[in-house]
Amino acid sequence: MHLRTFAAVMTALLITAAAVGAPIEYPKTKKVEQVDDYHGTKVADPYRWLETDVRTSKDVADWVAAENKITFDYLGTIPEREPIRKQLTTLWNYEKYSTPYKRGGHYFFSKNNGLQNQFVVYTVDKWGDTPRVLLDPNGWSKDGTVALGGVSVSDDAKYVAYAAAEAGSDWQTIRVVEVANGNQLSDELKWVKFSGISWTKDDKGFFYSRFPAVESGKAYQSLNRDQKVYYHRLGTPQSDDPVVYYDPSQPEWNHGADVSEDGRYLIISTTQGTANRNQVHVRDLQDPYAMPVTVVDKIENDYTFVGNDGPVLYFRTDLNAQKGRLIAIDLRNPARENWKEILPESDATLQGVDYTGHRFVANYLRDAHSEIRLFDTSGKPVRTVELDGIGSAGGFGGRSDDTETFYSFSSFATPPSVYRYDIATGEKQLVFRAKVAMNPADYEVKQVFYTSKDGTKVPMFISYKKGLKLDGNNPTLLYAYGGFDISLTPSFSISRLTWMNMGGVYAVANLRGGGEYGEAWHDAGTKLHKQNVFDDFIAAAEYLTKNGYTKPSRLAVQGASNGGLLIGAVETQRPDLFGATLPAVGVMDMLRFNQFTAGRYWVDDYGSSANADEFKALYAYSPYHNIKPGTKYPATFITTADTDDRVVPGHSFKFAAAIQEAQAGPAPVLIRIETRAGHGGGKPTAKVIEETTDEMAFLVKNLGMKLPKTF
Fold first, then answer.
1. Looking at the domain that runs over 34-90+438-702, which CATH code has it been given?
2. Which is nearest to 554 in space by CA: 502, 477, 439, 450?
3. What confidence score (pLDDT) does residue 387 get?
4. CA spacing 20 to 30 A to 314: which of 9, 71, 487, 690?
């Protein structure tokens, strides 16, 4: 080898070694002799013991402590960690508002002053007057880990029922306060999960859904079965609550209930899993002896209740309309052949409809960004709401006789704004605009369309600071989800803004499996077609490298929950394509996911290892089962939480142990396990900033980034 060439190679190796650091001594994770037989295929599961709840196993608790020590020792050596934390904290410290809504002549909204751990609920009698605090979760726990879940205001705004969740758990407790004075009532309802709260017209009580009490010590892992709809009358114990609806022949089905605006009907929706498909039963609340009448008997399509005009009920559905339409069902003649179409299927995807001010406010997605159109009750177009550009709009709720509504708008480089909107005239008034220390004009936001492996065109948003040279050398963060009919639309994020301020490119790919283009787009990323999702993501990464944005060594990828599965799958399929991966709270064992908590619902999207064909597809991409010893994996930073009862942390524990053992390259494989936190919902601001800081510090070190002098 030429001396100059040799010197250059040695210099490069030294730089790489300095960036990666000394080899990490991972914990010696024990292995067990566990082999399962799936349709004749023997599958080893040596880390099965890591599935045990950390609160009941000293071995698992000791392993968690050992892994966290290694992770936090590593993070403590990164000098950029503190500047990143300061930048995030500074930018995060701005007022944040939810979209207001009106009930019984009162207005309600949530607000965070900046760095409060939880949003505070306010109410005001007259718009423009000084609001007062109604619910402040920040006083419910010292560490901010008790969070507010759903909030439901009674019809005349006399009471508010609210759900509280501890440590990020999906389990919630419902309580009630008086709006006039904030006094707490004695009512307390437990074992509530995946439930709405819907008041009767007389404000004497409400409908909700709950599961049976769980055996002590198993609340965070046991399967959720036998959900029932109950009615709770204020001032009575939960033990007196009567069951309103349950199907004993289907213990795995879920049931929710919604009272129509006029108080006449109870609309009961029954689902089998996470897919937007449901039965519909309607009970006449004026008749105390009435039984629920079946309106939709099969779980084959989506029927989302929108509102009613007397006995005429409106539903958003995908029946004979992959992208959605609005129909009317007259309870006086409810046979399917008598259903009436109000809004036919459009070329854009109908995400949802609100019935406000005797207008249908239709929220469409066109190439993954919002388009809002108003129609009269016959379906005749009234107007399109003028938005502030390509972004995401939400809100537009209200009663059928309201003359006003509120909506919010944001985008990648546009902080949230809240508008008050006159339904009759179309006039809008800006009532809040987030004051963030940034100028939207300093950032470039574009949408591109790239080609996936099978020729499918897939949209992707790309954002970065203007003036960035597209020389193929920029640190880039690619994010996606790709599942459960969930659409990723442009949204504002302080962490993403900080990343762009650090000189990074931020990209969001709208993969199949989501809902961006309707049910066909969703179905193309489910069960036997799930590999399409990973192919779409890999194609997005290749687009970014081929079009001058970045290169593999400077490309990081991130996803959470189903998105964590996505990152685990593409990392094991294409470890050469990424410089760093951030799989968060991921579903990593695709053969056993349905054995825990809410996992059984996901069979709709994933399939089940109990089915021979679906097992074959699952086994082919299951991240935990496709880790190959002796492979050079990219720098990997896994995140999870000890009280995650949505995707139990055992998924991440097993994946971390396996990939640490298999790692043949110098890149670190770390897992960060948060305490008193769950799947992500209700996580205190302080914990969010800490976790985001650690993720970004990890990327700075492993992508070889240098922070700008102005940072």
1. 3.40.50.1820
2. 477
3. 96
4. 487
